[in-house]
Each structure stands twice: as C-alpha cells, then as structure tokens.
Amino acid sequence: MLIRDIVKELGLKVVAGDAGIDKNVEGVYIGDLLSLVMAKAGSSNIWITIQTHINVMAVATLVDISAVLIAEGVEIDEDTINKSNEEGIPLLKSDLSAYELACKLKEMGL
Length: 110
What we know:
alpha/beta, globular
C-alpha cells in the first residue's frame, strides 16, 4: 500500500518529506523508545509515535522506515521537518491517538 493512499484514506497532514509519498508500506510499528524501534521495527513500516525530536528521522533512516506518523497532534520540531525533507521520508501528522490510527491501518489491511 502506498503512503499516498494512506494519507488520503486517513485524512493525514503531510508535514514534510513529500518526495517519498509514493513509497510502499508493508507494516506498522508503534513506539516511542528509539532504541526499541531500532531493534523491532521492520523495513518499509509506517512508524506511529509522539516523539518529534530530530533523532526520530535518524532512526527512520537507519531502519528504512517508509513514513513517520506523529499521533495526538503533537507539534513537530523544525529540525525534524528539515531532516524529513532532506531524507525524503514522509513526516505525517494526525490528531488521532496511536491506537485509533493503528485500528484504521488494520482495517486498511496493514
């Protein structure tokens, strides 16, 4: 499933990283502890988190995450936005909780 399709279906805001909007998503990972994300998230996952520090983009790049989805409407650091654009990893945002987003992604077949 393409990130573009997920954005449209869930009404997500694309904050940055538009260049990667046609990447494929093969799974979902939810977590806020960066070391655990590095150990457990899979390549081509969409990562749901409330962390917005620039290190989120470093972890996303390391793990080859397809997109980072910020839940709960949390504000995103400008450095993180800039890094998302630099890496071409879409940085998405929603006011929904991580649980609500996960349920909707499950309904979409992820």
